[in-house]
# Entry
Amino acid sequence: MDNNFHTEVLVIGSGVAGLLIAELLSAEKNVTVITRSELGRSNSRLAQGGIAAVTTEDDSWADHFFDTIQAGVFHNNDELTELLVKKGGERVKQLIEMGVAFDRNMDGSYSRCREGAHRKPRILHAGGDATGKELMDTLIKRVKKSCMIIEHHTAADLLVEKGVCAGAWFMGEEGKLLTVKADYVILATGGAGQLYPITSNDASVTGDGIAMAFRAGATVSDLEFMQFHPTMYAGKGASPFLISEAVRGEGGRLVTSSGQRLMEGKHDLLDLAPRDVVSRAIAEERSLVYLDTSSVSNFNDRFPTIASYLNLDDASSKRVPVQPGAHFLMGGVETDRYGRTTVANLFAIGEVANTGVHGANRLASNSLLEAVVFANESATWVLNHTPIQQDVSVTFQPLHIPISMPAASMIRSMMSDYVGITRHAAGLTTAINELGFYLKGRKKPASSVEEVTVYNMLQTSWLMATSAHMRTESRGGHHRLDFPQSKQRFQQKRITRRIFEDEWITTEKKSRAVF
Ligand code: SIN
# Structure
């Protein structure tokens, strides 16, 4: 492979959003997909629950819209949320036509389940609890034939000159450099779950898309809103593993160690309350909380992936210990309907983007929906426009990182202790000072994938901590112990961040909460 080439469209990341846009564009454009590990590795592959969409007569886009904005604590972008839920049925049909085999009932109709904060059973799933895998396998088969795929290359930085993106450069496994120029760059790198020690996210999801876009001058926003999934398996010595909310949708109940129902008296929707409410309830309980699966019929058939992980012969009699884990970042690189960021020719789709459709707390199974809806919207834009003119001389510039950097585990502890399920000013200030101490240090050019990764983790963590410090209220995935109520003056207000003249450590002063 040439270490310097041009492609019409460069997709960075290989989850459902990235692979779908690659496939949609490939009939008319030359598309290159570059991913930091193997093609199949992403959060999308791990998605168990399914894809939420209105596909029955007794459901309506208005109901799906209302459930989405209520879970999002009315922080959602209403216009794009309406688009999201109205396009659901059409996009599910597109996936079926591409070959995705959603599960069916005995009578041949599609099987639909309920998850937290949905008032209707509208979640289509595949392979029981392996929806993400089914979508990914279908898309991988297609893109392998239609696009150029480069694995094991980590994006280090975007090539940007005068506000116009012209490509990106990458590091291979032995630090080998690859520079790719492109008419359009699509960031599809996922969120930031790996900034926390307990997470449902794939090991590759370390917040790099947000850090890169920020360094490139793009606006990032809503970074204080991190969703913690209530039910990560908490067995002794276990590696983190998600137990789908669909288990509670099928009758699973959270109970305390003395067998009392945890959610009684805490929310009208009990175990299916929004995730932020359930996660806080678990975190506030002093002893272990269990997921009682005795009311779930046919557990092993309905949830084969979970049953095999838990190694249960008969899950119906089990109580499974659970704890919350970092799951989904609502904020990200700010985009419009077409995935366009504030940097010309740079698009963001999937979890790395902030379209505003999730508000302060994402509704369950709306993330695959967002990925497919906005991959289509962005593809439509790219196919019908010409790129903004680029500076052809723009070239690789080394990425300067602090000489002294912390261990990734230190960043994760800091985020968990101070920017976790609950936050307060003193803790946030500690995190900001500690993370900022490293960022302010003397710099040297990055020489390994590990250095680039830790630098991105540091920058994204600092942005999240400072954003959380600025929002002096509680809303959805951002809960301040010192400001426990939502405030009217923060409703629909976004904390947006943008770098100025590379003095990025001072951006907290220069960033603004837009009122
Ligand atoms: C789950 O299956 O509980 C996760 C699905 C989602 O986050 O939408």
Q: What stands out?
A: The first strand starts at residue 4 and ends at 12. Residues 47-49, 244-246, 364-365, 367 surround succinic acid (CB under 6 Å).
